[in-house]
Specification:
The protein is an alpha/beta fold. The chain has 2 domains: about 40 residues, no CATH class; about 210 residues, Rossmann fold. The protein has 7 helices and 19 strands.
Length: about 270
């Protein structure tokens, strides 16, 4: 939801902006006890976040780019070809934590009574469904600990997929998630969203098992992969650190960061 605020009426300039956004827009004509400013103000839906607002675009409505300075700094080091395996692993872990912080910002809260050392008070706790982390093997394993650091109670499932180097299509070989699928929120983990084939196949597997609330967390995405996943599963939001330029003929993201699995496990 986007909000356009104007103290008198919606200005004519808002019409083209609303048409360009192509999403639901709420226009608030009056705001109580707020008369100092008189003009059009644009509020991003993530404005309450302690992070910088995530980059979004009508061309990729399911994509959320975490543009926090630390994320972008660490990503630049991650991309460098001379970054050793040990540092690469640590950076994947750290970036996964920062992206997960943003991806969990929409979780529902409920009041909870808390006894402090001095008195009883009311705090807030995460309510609703249980959380499950599902790395796509093998590269997704590098993101698990970083996300689990924020949600240590989350269960961990696994989906085994590899990309056929000739057809670039996914081949599945393993699927294991907790039994109470319908009661869970799923965070699918894969450092690279390249062609989108593996991600789309993994989401399909989760949905066949009964999942209905799925988010994908990745480090780097290609436009082709974002579009393919959105076409197949428009309900799945993607959180990433960067949207790169394109895929090359071999299906690698450019500029990218190479083969994340090989760099994580030292098999390059």
């Amino acid at each position: 939801m986007f909000v356009l605020r104007h103290h008198r009426r919606a200005p004519s300039a808002a019409a083209s902006l609303v048409q360009q956004i192509g999403q639901r827009v709420l226009i608030v004509a009056r705001v109580a006890r707020e008369t100092k400013h008189d003009g059009l103000v644009f509020f991003h839906a993530r404005e309450v976040s302690s992070f910088c607002p995530m980059d979004t675009t009508p061309a990729f409505p399911t994509l959320r780019i975490v543009s926090h300075p630390l994320v972008q700094h660490k990503l630049s080091i991650l991309r460098a070809r001379d970054t050793p395996t040990k540092i690469f692993k640590e950076l994947v872990d750290e970036i996964a934590t920062l992206i997960a912080y943003e991806a969990t910002s929409a979780l529902q809260l409920e009041p909870a009574s808390v006894d402090t050392p001095l008195e009883r008070t009311t705090g807030m706790r995460v309510s609703g469904k249980k959380m499950t982390l599902v790395p796509i093997l093998r590269a997704g394993l590098g993101m698990v600990e970083g996300v689990a650091r924020l949600v240590p109670s989350a269960r961990v499932g696994h989906i085994g997929l590899y990309r056929d180097h000739d057809t670039l299509e996914p081949v599945d070989y393993y699927f294991k998630v907790p039994g109470d699928v319908g009661e869970r929120d799923f965070f699918l983990l894969d450092p690279m969203l390249a062609t989108g084939g593996s991600a789309a196949a993994a989401v399909s597997s989760l949905k066949r098992a009964g999942a209905s609330r799925i988010r994908l967390l990745c480090l780097v995405a290609a436009p082709e992969g974002v579009r393919r996943l959105a076409d197949a599963h428009p309900d799945v939001v993607v959180y990433c650190a960067a949207l790169d330029r394109e895929l090359n003929g071999q299906g690698y993201i450019l500029p990218g960061l190479g083969d994340a699995g090989d760099r994580l496990f030292g098999t390059r």
